[in-house]
Amino acid sequence: MIHRALKLSRLANTIAIPTRLGLISVHSRSPSPSPAVRLLHDGTDVLAVKPVALQMTDYAFSHARSQKSDESYAQGLLILEQCLSTQSGDSHDTDSQNSKGMVLLAMATLLADRGNFNEAMEKLQMVQGLTQSSLAVRVAATEALVGLNLELGHVYLRSSRPGSLVHRDVYFLPDDTSSVLADKCLELFDKDEPRGSAGGYLAVEARAKAVKGLVEHVRGNLEPVKSCFQAFLVVEDSAGSSAALSYGEFLHGTRNFSLAKELYQNVIQSVGGNKGFGNICTLAACNMAPDEVLLAATCALGQLEAHTGNFDDAEEILTRALTKTEEQYGTCHPKVGVVLTCLALMFRSKAKQEHSSALLIQEGLYRRAIELLKALPLESEETMGSRRDIVALARGGYAQALSVQQNRKNEGGKMKRWAESAWGSHRMSLAEALDLSESSGKVPIIDVRISRVL
C-alpha cells in the first residue's frame, strides 16, 4: 500500500478527478510559468494544485473508507503525511500552498470522520496560516472549523499547539467560537485582493456569508440569518452546495416549504451528479464536505416531507439516507444514530396524524439511535458535548413513547427530565421540537452535517 502511494508521488500526468473534498481541476507542470497558475489568474475559477497531491489525496480517501476501520484510516493518514512531506515547506507560490492546504484539509476530514476533532482542528488552523493560498482554500478551512465547533457542543478540548484557538484544559462554548470564526472568515475579504474572476470571488464571499448565516441559525437569531443569504441569492448557482443547503434550512425553518424543497432537491442533484471539473467553490472539508452535504440535504428533504404530511415519501427518502450513511461510515458510527433519530421522529409524526401507535418501531429506532450516539447514562452527572441536542431529542421522543405504557411511566418520566435538562436549542423548547404545530410557527430541522437541531 505504501509502495503504491510512493509510486503515485512520481506521477505527473494531466488529470481531472473527483476527490472527497470536492471536484478540482489540475494540470501537468510546465517549466515556467505553471499552466495551473495561469488558469487561476486568467479569470477562470479553477483551483491550482499539484497533480500528485490530488492523486495521493484521492487514494488515501479510497483506502481509508474502503474498510472503515481504525487501521485503514491510520494508513490513509500515513499516505497523506507522506504526501505532505513531499510538498516544499518554504515555497510561497500559490499552487504549492494550495496543494499543501488541500492535503491538510484531507487529513482534517479523515480525523473528523473518526471523531478526532481536536487534531482535525489543528490541521485546519495550519491551513489558515497559508496566506498565499487561494482564498477558497482558507474559506474551506474556516468553514470546516465552524462546522466542527457547531457539532462539538459544550466540551473540554486539549491542544498543545501554540496559538491554537482551543487551549489546553479550557472549557469553552463552541457556538461562540463558531461565531468568532465566521466573522474572521468574512474579514479575509477585507484583506485579500480578488484573484480569478469577479464571479468566482463573489461566490466564495457568498459562501463565507452563508457560514455566518448557519451559525446565527443555530444560535436562534433568525433576523440576521436572512441578511447573510442576500449575497447567496446573487450568485446562487455558483456559491456551493453547503451554502444552498444552509439557505434551504432557513427557508424550511420559516415554513417556506416549497422553495426549501426546491433547494434541497437542487443540492442532491448537483452534488450527486457532478462529474465535471470543479471550481473554487467546491473545495470543502470535514462535516462541510460534499458527501456530508449530500447526506444532510437528503435527510432535510425527508424531514420536510414529514413536516408536510407526505410520510410515504419521507420514509423512502430517510431510509435511503440511512443506507447511504451506513455504507459511508459503517453501521456503528454516531452519524447513523442521527439519521435514525430523523426516522424515529418521522414515525412519531405519522402515528400522531394517522391516530396509530407504531410504538415498537419508534422504541426500536430510539433505542438504537441513543446507543449509537453514545449517550451518557441517565444517572450521570457529566454534561454531554457533541450531539447533545440530538440525544435529548431522541430521549425526549422515547420518553413520550414510554409514557403511554402504564408499566413504564416512571422510566419515561426519568428520561424526559434528562432530555429537558440536556436540551440546548436557542430557538425552541424540547416540547416544541417534538410537537410540531401550525400555531407555534417553529419547525425543528436536524442538520445531519453538524448534528444539531435548527
UniProtKB/TrEMBL annotation:
InterPro entries: TPR-like_helical_dom_sf (IPR011990). This is Tetratricopeptide repeat (TPR)-like superfamily protein putative isoform 1. GO terms for cellular component: mitochondrion. SUPFAM superfamilies: TPR-like. It comes from Tripterygium wilfordii (Thunder God vine). Gene3D superfamilies: Tetratricopeptide repeat domain. It comes from the Eukaryota.
